[in-house]
Each structure stands twice: as structure tokens, then as C-alpha cells.
Amino acid sequence: MRAGGSMIPMRSRTDHDDATSPGGAPAATYLDGQLLVAMPGMADERFARSVIYLCAHSAEGAMGIIVNKAAADLNMPDLLVQLDIIGQADAIRLPNRVGHMPVLMGGPVESSRGFVLHSPDFHIDQSTLLIDEGICLTATVEILRAIAAGTGPSSAVLALGYAGWQAGQLESEIQANGWLHCPADPELIFNAALDTKYDRALRAIGIEPAMLSMSAGHA
């Protein structure tokens, strides 16, 4: 975990929602604060059946965190010990919800860097970004210290790494039917049942997962 600068400029959603460009033409529609849901035919195996929360999306590119894939062979108590936030003997005394807090594989970029998506009842000045109603992002080790001490946010998930797109890349992938998107649901993001998130996200779009799989198989 470190407090480095944002990969993509982060802005309030009010900066670009329902805006117009010079000359009165509609501005581009950006999807920060929404979920991306991989289509069954996703060619990149790293993103197969992924649900990604988009933390930033602008003309310069996009950055998001996969919220439905666990980091391999790593849990929250072990991570807190590795970071010297708690001692080995303290790991068994963590509050139950902290001990079972998901550690996610957030994406293939900077996979050793930690990002915490969390509820807005916790804030660190100049470190916490409110992305959308109900969801914040903090990428400093101080939030893990607060979580371990029981003073952190009421809901949170920790992700290692992120997914990134260059300018225009995400738009091209969506146009090529690589991704669906829908409004984000904090309950889905923070839920520990990772295996159900993909199907739940599809249903939130109004798609029955079994029917989508059958359609992909007959394409």
C-alpha cells in the first residue's frame, strides 16, 4: 500500500454528467462509478467473468478494480501481518468481519499495490476519494491500520492491483461487445460471496446468465 498519485485524473461525477461540449454538442458519456461486466466471449482470460468497478473514466483513459476475484493464497490477517500492522499473535484476535474481509485480485497492473473500496463513513484527508454515492477509494496503509483497530469503514474490500485502459481503449472494447455496464450496487461490491457477483451483476442489467451463455455458445 502506498499513497502515490492517481493513474487517471479523478474527478467528481458532476464534472461531466449531462454536460455539453463547446458549440453545444453533447459531451462524451463516462462510466466512472458504474460496473463493467465481461461478456461470455471475453478474449482476455484475465478478465473472463469479471465484474469491475470503474473508479475513473475520462478522455484520457479508465481505471477500475475487479471486485469478484480473490487474490491467490492471501487473506486479510496474513496481509496485515506481512505489512507489520499487527503481530502474528494478534491475527487470531481480529474482529470477525476484519478476519473475513475479502482480499481481491484487483487487476493485472501494479499487482503489489493495494486499493481499498469502502463505505463513506471513513475518510482520510487528501487520501480518500469519493467516487460515487456510497463508495470511496483509499490507497494508503493508514486505512488498513484503522480497519485492524476496528475504527475503519463499516464496509470495505481490499484489492491488489487494478485494470487500466488507455484513451479510447475501453470505448472500443465496449463497442466490440466485450463489456456490458450497469449502475454500481454497494451491497454487491462489498459482499464477501465473490462467486455470485457475476451472475448478480448480469441480473441487475436484466439478463439471465444461462440465456446469455447459450447465446454466446451459438454465436
Describe the global form.
globular
Spans with pLDDT under 50 lasting ≥5 residues? 1-27
| Residue share in β-strands | 25-35%
Number of helices: 7
Broad CATH class: Alpha Beta
Distance between the termini: 43 Å
Q: Overall pLDDT, averaged? A: 84
Protein name: UPF0301 protein GMJLKIPL_1915
InterPro entries: AlgH-like
Region (Disordered): 1-24
Organism: Methylobacterium isbiliense
Commentary on this structure:
There is one protein chain. This protein has one domain: VC0467-like, CATH 3.40.1740.10. Helices cover 23% and strands 26% of the residues. Strands 1, 2, 3, 4, 5, 6, 7, 8 and 9 form a 9-stranded mixed β-sheet that branches. The longest helix is centred in the middle third of the chain and has 9 residues. The chain starts with 33 loop residues before the first strand and ends with a helix. The N terminus is likely disordered.
Which short descriptors sum up this protein?
single chain; 219 residues; 9-stranded mixed sheet; 7 helices; 9 strands; disordered N terminus
